[in-house]
Amino acid sequence: MISLAVNETIARAVEVLRENDHGDYTIPTKGLYPFQWNWDSCLTALGLAHYDEARAWTEIETLFAHQWPDGMVPHIVFHVLNDSYFPGPEIWRTNRPTATSGITQPAVAGFAVRRLFDRAKDKELAAERARALLPKIDAWHRWFYENRDPRGEGLVAIIHPWESGRDNSIDWDDAFERVPTEGVEAYTRRDTLHADPAHRPTKAQYDRYLWLLQHFRALGWDNAKLHDASPFQIVDPGFNAILIRSAADLADLAETLGEMEIAKANRARAEKGLLAMERLWSDAHGQYLCLDRVIGKLVDSASVGGILPVFSAIPKPRIAAIAATIERIAGKARYIVPSHDLDDPRFDAKRYWRGPVWLVVNYMIADGLAASGHTQVAQRITRSSVDLIAESGFAEYYDPLSGEPLGGGRFTWTAAMVIEFLKSER
Ligand code: GLC
């Protein structure tokens, strides 16, 4: 009986993936996000591999076909024209052969490619496709440390909230006060046509997103200049942990495939990053915090960004402390892991990245906890994720208190993660 229900849910998840499949890339969901998104695609590939390994490799290859000459992999590739999304290519104006945005997103490709390779039934195909991707992912990692860690501290900064993948987190609020809004061109949002405005960022926040965009555009999208010129430079522990994990995974994969230079460079990046990450630890919160690089201070905001580091090889006592923090949160939320600590008065159960649960984040946290022996907490997160699907379908995100589905529906990476969770539960 149970396995029947599981098969049925997997079949429904596959339907969502197929529905959003555009041949060589997958869109996150119709209407709200009609293009290819960077980290969505990499995590989606894991779900695609469940029924078509070749197609899974293509998903990541398509993304990397639009890598910039300097090594950056953009956060959106605008493969087709579609005016249901704002800001579109006419706002970014990055001057690429196929239009892309001008900023990046969490570097989860190294992790995804290694996982695809490790699980591949067709090993020959996997070796061939992974070998071709290795130098590209390596170039992206090099780009990060050269352009987003110009003083060689070991950790990279994001220069726009959208780079974090946690677009509207409370983590950015204080630093955002420093971002001006003068000179922002008139615009019409599209996100609020597809989703409830009460679940989306406010106008004040949107103005600042656009101010930063215009500022970078005025600098010709020259990454050698953007970091230092940005009034917003945040060292996000979650973002760095994903990059560190990807660097370590890429190093392992490169070693397997005999690419020793790539292995060495990425091993060094991961080791340096892990040491530097310790500067972000907070005993008071039992998790890591963001660092505001402009003022050199930790940001007092306990978000899931500081829990995500369990995805990388942080010290064992840190993992145990974070597992305890998740247990504490689980005492208050029906579904875990909320994107913000419920004890913080700024917590908002329904608004985008200020409280709701995202299954992709759950996946990475559970993966890290399981790998370090915290199986019970990991299973609890997996259970929560599967329950959310059963009760509320394949939503973009969920209210951690009620389980209500929020944001876009029929969401690609949510479906991909469900396949992953159900297979791991088996
Ligand atoms: C939102 C999310 C971002 C994601 C995108 C597409 O912008 O904040 O992380 O990549 O949607 O799903």
Automatic annotation (TrEMBL):
Keyword Zinc: no
Pfam families for the chain: MGH1-like_GH
Keywords (A to Z) from UniProt: Glycosidase, Hydrolase
A biological-process GO annotation: protein N-linked glycosylation
UniProt protein name: Mannosylglycerate hydrolase MGH1-like glycoside hydrolase domain-containing protein
Residue intervals of the Mannosylglycerate hydrolase MGH1-like glycoside hydrolase domain: 33-414
GO molecular function, one term: Glc3Man9GlcNAc2 oligosaccharide glucosidase activity
Family listed: Belongs to the glycosyl hydrolase 63 family.
Keyword flag Transcription regulation: no
